[in-house]
Amino acid sequence: MLNQAKRSELFSQYYARWIKVYKDGAIRNVTMQKYLMTQIWVEKLVPNLLTCKLTRTSYQQMLNDYAENHERQTTMDFHHQLKGAILDAVDEGLIDRDPTRKAIIKGKSPREKKQKYLNQFELHTLLTDLTLNTEIDWEWFIVLVAKTGMRFSEALALTPSDFDFAHQSLTISKTWDYKGCGGFLPTKNQSSARKIQIDWQTVIRFSELLKNIPMDKPIFIEGAVFNSTVNDILRRHCIRANIPVITIHGLRHTHASLLLYAGVSIASVARRLGHASMTTTQKTYLHIIHELENQDVELIMRSLSGLN
User: Fold this and answer.
1) pLDDT in tens, 21-63
2) Among the residues of 178-242, which ranges form H helices?
């Protein structure tokens, strides 16, 4: 009887319950918000759909309706967030067959993307425009992210104890909950916990800047922190330096791009960025990798022609 009652409940109710049972407390808050947003869309798109009536056709129609207002990649994310719950419903006998099988992912054409990274000359121009004082501030934050490729939340969580000046390294072992109530959180994934080598100029400057800061105190945190505040500072510098306007996350892309163009291996870049796998790095920087491959082809052809 219990199973029959579950079969006749609304899919939106089943999905809400599934999120609470399997995701609440098991995933980061930012990821949880994505699942809750998917739940809102399910309630909007299929308010009267029973779990037992979820077929390939009804599921595909839900995806199609969602895709009318979203890009293809966003629709793919929506599909993945639903699929886990639906497969569990199949395992429980609430749905006879997997309705997600052979699902077709549609979506609007992606908007024209703004430039996400700077070239070496533009980055040099940006760093030259910064006013670097004798006390730690957001200008130094920009420098550190540009030179390490750290995520915004990782850089916010840095304390003096994370710097190993003797070995020119920086330990990334936590993040800062800037979207919530503040405080330390774990890194995004296991691979995100890492050590990053830093250049000797950064070592010298930060060894002076951190002298009077307690070892366990976040060096950039004074009250509430907003991503928009730091991005506005960076934006003003970009405009003043007459270079493309990018975000703090764009500095992470800039760092990775410069390393790839310099010939650093994808594996090393992935480790430095804290990516879970090289596949993530390859997908993110596919355009650069293709450009470098084209250069390699030209180099191969020149080398072969010299053998005659």
Assistant:
1) 999 999 888 889 999 999 999 999 999 999 999 999 999 999 9
2) 200-209, 227-240
Q: How far is CA 29 from the centre of its chain?
A: 14
Distances (CA, A) of 48 to 12, 52, 289, 297: 8, 12, 47, 57
Domains and CATH numbers, the chain: 2-91 (1.10.150.130), 120-294 (1.10.443.10)
pLDDT band of residue 6 (cuts 50, 70, 90) is low
Cα separation, 85 vs 269, in Å, equals: 34
Biggest CA-to-CA distance, the chain: 82
Residues 274, 188: contact at Cβ < 8 Å?
yes
User: Could you give the CA distance from residue 96 to residue 55 in angstroms, rounded to a whole number?
Assistant: 9
User: SS3 of 251, please?
Assistant: helix
Cα gap 138→132, rounded to integer Å: 9
Separation between Cα atoms, residue 150 and residue 158, nearest integer Å = 10
The predicted model scores a pTM of: 0.72
Phi first, then psi: what are they for 250, rounded to 5°?
-65, -30
Contact status, residue 229 vs residue 248, Cβ threshold 8 Å: no
Q: 172 pairs with which residues across the strands?
A: 194
CA distance 94 to 2: 11
Strands (E), 201-241: none
Show Cβ contacts of residue 173 under 8 Å, excluding neighbours closer than 6 positions: 162, 187, 193
